[in-house]
Amino acid sequence: MNPSIPSIDDQQFAHAQVKPVSPWKWAFRIIRWATYAFALITLILLLHKAPPPPVETSPQAAARAEQKLEDAERAVASGQPATVRMDETELNSYLSSHLELSGANAAKPARTGNQIPANDPAPTQQDVEQMRSNVRDVKIQLIEDRVKAYVVFNVHGKDMSLELEGRLAAQNGYLNFQPVSGQFGSLPIPQSTLESAVQRLMDSPENREKLKLPPQIADLHIENGEVVASYK
User: Fold this and answer.
1) Which of 8, 24, 78, 219 is deepest in the core (most CB within 10 A)?
2) Which residues make beta-bridge pairs with 160?
3) Residue 47 exposed, middle or buried by CB count within 10 Å (0-12, 13-18, 19+)
4) What is the pTM (predicted TM-score) of this model?
């Protein structure tokens, strides 16, 4: 019997057998595509604007808030202490009639907001001023002893939302905010990043003066779902 002779095609491609991919290359590919997927998911969460909280406003509530503040001012002028309590509806109604917001749906043109640069988790003063001029909407929720702010601002033609929750207090004549949680769009902000950003903003000389409370206010905090301001 004659031995089989390899065909020309077999001889031509015998050297072209597929070499197995090393584990290191597989690991690199997995890490690279996982990084791409994570970046894409992060971008989607950032651009996905969170729905606004269900807060109510009314002209009657705004008028009640105005009256409470006027009564407190008269009491202070006569040398008497006073305490102002505002519920969630009164606070949001007062803010909607006094804040200047950009956008067609806002009561007036705008202030507040923020864009955090990718290489620095804490916003700069320039970032804050830019966001402040692009705010479209502000809503406040009062939850037991905490305040939760919902802010919509425009970045390069795209509306983005920022939510911050924390506790308010008066400290040495200044407003103090202790963050509990926060998120950009649907992306939660790490607690360490959140605390660092808030602390940096509150410690900057420019913002420090803006956080100074009127001298007649002795205390400011959230209690049982109401803003409580004590005048001296």
Assistant:
1) 219
2) 153
3) middle
4) 0.65
